[in-house]
Design goal:
The complex is a heterodimer. By secondary structure, chain A is an alpha/beta fold. Chain A has helices at 6-20, 32-35, 38-43, 55-67, 78-82, 85-94, 122-127, 140-152, 199-211, 229-239, 254-265, 284-290, 295-306; strands at 4-5, 24-28, 48-50, 71-77, 100-104, 134-135, 157-160, 165-166, 182-185, 190-194, 216-220, 223-225, 242-249, 270-275. Chain A has a 7-stranded mixed β-sheet, sandwiched between helices. Chain A has a 5-stranded mixed β-sheet with strand order 9-11-10-13-14, sandwiched between helices. Chain A has a two-stranded antiparallel sheet with strand order 1-8. In chain A, helix 1 crosses helix 8, helix 4 packs parallel to helix 6 and helix 9 packs across helix 13 (295-306). The longest helix of chain A has 15 residues, at 6-20. In chain A, 59% of the residues are buried. In chain B, strand 2, helix 5 (155-163) and strand 3 form a beta-alpha-beta unit. Chain B is α/β, with parallel strands linked by helices. Helix content of chain B is 41%, strand content 11%. In chain B, the strands form 2 sheets. A 5-stranded parallel β-sheet of chain B has the order 1-2-3-7-6, with helices on both faces. Chain B has a two-stranded antiparallel sheet with strand order 4-5. The chains are: A alpha/beta, B alpha/beta.
Chain lengths: 308, 298
């Protein structure tokens, strides 16, 4: 498979799944060309609702649709969607309305548009709600399966998708399992836990580190919540060193979730790589380098961490 | 529905006012003003309008009711208990630890509640979503949503006021949705007019594409007639502006912002109930007065 943005894989999967399942509807707030639901809207115009630039209203409508038997995908940029946190908190989470929330354009990787359009706090916000799982697929194959899973999931769920293309990290036999990490590369010296756009970069970093005799285990954490505690503890117990890599604020995301787990159960040295400032405009590659999320940045951080 | 039994509905609402005072007095907190302003509307909906089955709260073909102004849920709890969703004696567990009668509506805890509300401005969007979902599913059920006037200051309300009249077009217009404004003129900090005036609210709604009906929200016959009209209006949702009095039925609470969110003390509750029920105290109200008098002596 060629590199593909998870938002694009989402849009394609939705068209396929929509043919089989009449219950699926989409809601957009004037960004359907960007969230990639435009194809679904073209194919199933009676099941696609563009409600205008009104995300709070969109989320409320989605809750009502979910409560009357539809399977609504409420889509926008992650920052605009989760920015309406209060509506998600009450109308979706507390109401337990099985809305499928889809946040695209996550992280600094969106590049030129700059900070205001970057989803950098969405995981932190949604992790605080007791009943909304968070899934961030790492490539096209995983995205397609995660979308299919979201439809079957009995409650609300959040899918975190990228604007940028993602290199494939799975072979075609891969099967996404909700709530489970998958070990993309075994190793005994350090556990690298990555999610979404940083997974491939972490694999690249592991290959470079291997040349230096550092054998990193790379885990793809597609389900950020609930965390696969058993697998993470098993890996951490063996390597004794854990590094998390995410295109999200270093506060409240995957790194924080892992820190909470290790701190409570098995204190283990931990290095969290993530975004520590506001984002800014620039090319995606340059931004990944600036925030230490590119393979070189990850290699440097791991070396420094292990040589403490 | 033709020819509502007005004396019967008025009697249900009168007992509702007494039960609202009783619940809030036991709870020691809550919102009497708006519960008393909305009770006649809710009585009309629950006892002369909506299709539901309290023994099957998730019955697919039921009508939906969403109290967007969730803080006035004591009025709804009374209607639900009276309709048979749960025993009347549970009303006094309002706001107590472990009770499904949460301070604001909780769908998960209490079957029959359709959506969690109380964070204002959200219920109208959820209601419109339900109306659309029912249309897509080919159901004939209707959706009723009660909005507060202070709540209508929320931006999310206007998002849905803009979208709902055209939503679902051309095949699934939301003519199964009816939104009712409990226009009592008072919010927590004072008078709506002074804090952020909605006027001219009817003109605003009409310009957004809503047919608007205006009624006295304490006249159950008028409310019922408007609901009739909403039901036969095709091609989109209907809005009813119900003019009400905050604290209606209790002279010392009426039109006083102080009683937006303050529970009466037992002696105040007894005074209130005597006013609502009238003198001489009818036999149905006497036990409540005795109960609250005893509470005051504790």
């Amino acid at each position: 498979m060629a590199a593909k943005a998870s938002r694009a894989a989402f849009g394609e999967a939705l068209i396929e799944l929509g043919a089989k399942d009449e219950r699926i509807v989409t809601l957009d707030a004037d960004l359907s060309k960007s969230t990639m639901t435009a194809g679904f809207a073209k194919k199933y115009p009676g099941r696609a609702f563009n409600v205008g630039i009104a995300e709070s209203g969109m989320i409320g409508l989605a809750a009502g649709l979910a409560l009357t038997g539809r399977v609504p995908f409420a889509c926008s940029f992650a920052c605009f969607l989760v920015g309406r946190f209060e509506t998600i908190r009450v109308s979706v989470a507390y109401t337990d309305a099985p809305v499928k929330l889809v946040g695209t354009h996550v992280g600094v990787a969106i590049g030129e548009d700059g900070y205001t359009q970057m989803g950098l706090e969405d995981v932190a916000c949604l992790r605080s709600l007791p009943n909304i799982p968070i899934v961030q697929p790492a490539d096209e194959l995983e995205t397609r399966q995660a979308v299919a899973y979201a439809i079957e999931h009995p409650g609300p769920i959040y899918l975190r998708l990228t604007r940028q293309n993602l290199e494939p990290v799975h072979d075609t036999a891969y099967r996404f399992r909700f709530g489970k990490v998958d070990v993309l590369r075994p190793g005994n010296d350090v556990s690298i836990l990555a999610t979404g756009g940083t997974v491939w970069n972490s694999l690249e970093a592991a290959r470079t580190l291997a040349a230096d005799g550092i054998h990193a285990e790379v885990l793809n954490v597609a389900t950020i919540k609930p965390l696969d505690e058993e697998a993470i503890l098993r890996s951490a117990g063996r390597t004794g060193h854990v590094v998390t890599v995410e295109d999200h604020s270093v506060h409240g995301g995957l790194g924080s979730a892992v820190a909470e787990l290790l701190g409570e159960v098995m204190p283990t040295p931990l290095k969290r790589i993530g975004v520590t400032t506001f984002g800014e405009s620039g090319d995606a590659k340059g931004l990944y380098a600036r925030h230490g999320l590119d393979p070189g940045g990850i290699v440097g951080a791991v070396r420094k961490f292990l040589s403490r | 529905m033709a020819n509502p039994d007005v004396p019967k509905l008025e009697s249900i609402a009168r007992e509702g006012r007494v039960q609202i005072i009783r619940m809030l007095t036991h709870a020691g907190s809550g919102h009497p003003g708006g519960s008393l302003s909305v009770i006649d509307i809710l009585t009309t909906l629950y006892f002369n309008r909506m299709r539901y089955d309290p023994t099957r709260p998730h019955w697919e073909d039921r009508d939906r009711f969403v109290l967007s102004k969730g803080h006035c849920v004591p009025a709804q709890y009374y209607c639900m208990a009276r309709a048979g969703y749960f025993p009347m004696d549970r009303l006094v567990t309002l706001r107590k630890l472990g009770s499904p009668l949460q301070g604001h509506p909780d769908r998960v805890a209490l079957p029959g509640i359709e959506a969690a509300t109380g964070s204002l401005g959200q219920g109208i969007s959820v209601s419109a979503g339900m109306a659309l979902g029912l249309k897509l599913a080919g159901k004939g059920s209707r959706v009723y949503c009660v909005l507060g006037d202070g709540e209508t200051q929320e931006g999310q309300v206007w998002e849905t006021l803009m979208s709902a009249p055209k939503l679902g077009a051309p095949d699934h217009h939301l003519d199964n949705l009816c939104v009712i404004l409990d226009y009592n003129g008072i919010q927590l900090d004072g008078f709506v007019k002074k804090i952020l005036d909605l006027e001219p609210v009817t003109d605003k709604l009409k310009s957004f594409g809503w047919p608007v009906l205006e009624v006295n929200g304490h006249d159950v016959a008028q409310v019922d007639k408007a609901l009739d009209q909403a039901e036969v209006t095709k091609g989109g949702p209907t809005f009813i502006v119900a003019h009400t009095v905050k604290g209606k039925g209790v002279s010392f609470m009426e039109n006083d912002p102080e009683w937006h969110g303050k529970a009466p003390k037992p002696e105040e509750a007894v005074r209130a109930i005597r006013e609502i029920a009238g003198e001489p105290l009818p036999s149905w109200a006497a036990p409540v007065v005795a109960e609250l008098s005893a509470l005051g002596k504790k």
